[in-house]
Amino acid sequence: MKNFSLDKIVRKNIQLLTAYTSARSEFSGEASVFLDANENNLAADYNRYPDPLQVKLKAAIGRLKGISGENIFIGNGSDEAIDLLIRLVCVPATDNIIVCSPTYGMYQVAAQLNDVQVKDVWLNEHFQLNVPGILAAIDACTKIIFICSPNNPTGNLIDVADIETLLFYFDGLVVVDEAYIDFTTQASWNKRILEYPNLVVLQTLSKAWGLAGLRVGMAYASTTIIQLLNKIKPPYNIAGVTQQLALDHLSGNNELASWIDIIITQKNHLITQLNAFPVIEKIYPSDANFVLAKVISANDLYHYLKTEGIIVRNRSSQPLCTGCLRITIGTAEENKRLLTAIKNYPQ
Ligand SMILES: *Cc1c(COP(=O)(O)O)cnc(C)c1O
Asked: Virtual CA dihedral for 8, 195, 100, 111, nearest 10 degrees?
C-alpha cells in the first residue's frame, strides 16, 4: 500500500475504454413511456431490462453491512467478481497473481482463463499465510494476492496481522474472500476498505444466506475500484428476478441467525462423533459450515460413502491435504446418515 496507486495497476486498455452505456443506465429519471431499449412493450412481467447498477439491492445490503452503496459491487456470484478483478489489473501473458494453497480453486482457474500466471505460495502447516514467502514471491508484475478467510477447504480464519502486513507492503490488490464470514464472530474486513485503498473484500449470498441458486456475490472496495468494476462488467449482470428475490430474502429472512446457530451446533456435534471413529485421523478446527477431515485412505472412504449415496468433497490431491475429505454440515438427519455410514464402514 505504501506506493499503491490504482492508475499504476489498472490495465491501460481499461483506462482508455469507453464503457458501453445501456439504455437503462443513460436515462435514470421518472418517465411513463419507455421507447429507448427495444423492449416488447406489449408484454408484461419480464419485458424490462433490469437495473444495471442494482441500486435497491445495494442499499439493502449496505444497510445490513453498514457500507455505502458506492462501495459495493454485485456480481453474478462472487466468482464473477474474481474474474473481473483479474481482468481489471492483470495484463494477459505478462502479469501474475499469488494464491495460497490449499484454497478455493476459482482464483487459479479465473487467472488461467485470462492467461495470467499463478504463483502458489502454500500455507504453512498451521494453514496460515507464509508471509515471508509471499513477500519474496511478489515481483513487478504481481497484481493481486487472493486470501480466503475462513479458508476453503481448511475452514480456519487467516491471522489478521498477516493480512495487515500484506496490505501494508504490497502495492497491488489484496482480495480477502469472506464467503464463510457469517459462520464466525470475527469482524469483516469490509469495515476497513476506507483504511486500505488496495483492499477488496468478497462475500456471497450462496452460503449462510442459503441462496446459492440465485448467484449473488458482493465485492466491497474503494469507490474508485467499484466504479472500475462497474465499467467493465456485463451491463445487465444480475437478472431482475434475481435482484427482487435477493431483496425479498434480505428483508424477510428471520431464519439466518437460527440457521447459523443450528449449523454450528451440528458441526460441533459432528466433530465429536467423527473423532471417535478409528478411520478418522483428525478433524481440523473450523470457522465455516464444513470440516476438513484427515482420514485413513481418503479415496476408499470417499467411494464407500458414494455407494451409500453420500457425497463429500475429496480434497486429498490438494497441497497439505493428503488423506483429506471436506464435509459440509448438513441437516441433523443427513449428519446422522453420514455417521451411521462411517460407523458401518468395513475396514
Ligand atoms: C463458495 C465459495 C465462493 C462462491 O461464491 P458464489 O457467490 O457462489 O460464486 C467464493 N469463494 C469461496 C471461498 C467459496 O467457498
From this structure: -40
Question: Dihedrals φ, ψ of 207, to 5°?
Answer: -105, -95
179 lines ligand 1 (CB under 6 A): yes
For 300-316, write each residue's pLDDT tens digit.
Answer: 999 999 999 999 999 99
Among 206, 237, 286, which is best to mutate for testing ligand 1, by the most ligand atoms less than 8 A from CB?
206
- The single-letter DSSP state of residue 37 is S
Instruction: Look at 252 and 122; give whichever has higher pLDDT.
Output: 122
Give the 3-state secondary structure percentages of the chain, helix then strand then coil, rounded to 5. 40, 15, 45
In tens, the pLDDT along 129-174 reads 999 999 999 999 999 999 999 999 999 999 999 999 999 999 999 9
CA of 316 to the centre of ligand 1 (A): 20
Q: Of 25, 26, 47, 23, which is closest to residue 37 (Cα–Cα)?
A: 23
Please tell me if the CB atom of residue 83 comes closer than 6 angstroms to any atom of ligand 1. no
Contact 283, 261 (CB under 8 A): no
Task: Characterise 159 by phi-psi region: left (phi > 0), alpha (psi -120 to 50), beta (else).
Answer: beta
Question: For residue range 167-212, what is the model confidence (pLDDT) as tens digits?
Answer: 999 999 999 999 999 999 999 999 999 999 999 999 999 999 999 9
